[in-house]
Amino acid sequence: SYRKDPDFKIRVYVSLLHEKEVIQKQIEFMKEYRSLIQFGTFYRLQSPFEGNETSWMVVSQDQKVAIVCYYRVLQEINQRFRRLSLKGLNSNFIYEISDQDGLYYGDELEHVGLILTDSSAGENEDGKNEGDFISRLFVIRAQKQ
Length: 145
Hints:
Layout: H1 8-39, E1 41-46, E2 53-59, E3 65-72, E4 83-84, E5 94-97, E6 103-105, H2 106-111, E7 114-115, E8 134-142
Antiparallel strand pairs: 1-2, 2-3, 3-8, 4-7, 5-6, 5-8
C-alpha cells in the first residue's frame, strides 16, 4: 500500500511538477500559434474516416509558417516508408521542419512529402513515435530569403 512507501509523496509531487511543466509548454505553444490556428488556411491531408492515419495542417496567409498534425491509431507491422504530402506551401520557399534535419523546398514537401518513417518500416532513429495511438506535430518555417 502507499502508506508503507516512504517515497510515495515525493514521486507524486515530482509527477505533478512534470505535468505542470508540460501544461505550461502547451499554453506557450498555443499563445505563439493562436493567430495561425485561428486565421490560417486549414487542410485535411488524410481523412479520419478512411483509414488508420489522420493528418491535418494549417498554413499562414503568407505561406511562411505551417503546423502539421499527424495521428495513427494502430501501428502496422512491416510497412513501407511513410511520406505525407503537404498542401498550401510556396513552391519557391525553402522550409525548415521542427525535429528534423535539413531544408526542403515547398514543392518537394508537396510532391515527395514529409517523411514519417518509424519502427514499423524497420527504422527508428530517435526511439520515439512508435506503437499504437501516436501523434506527431511539426512546425514548418520558411527560411529568410
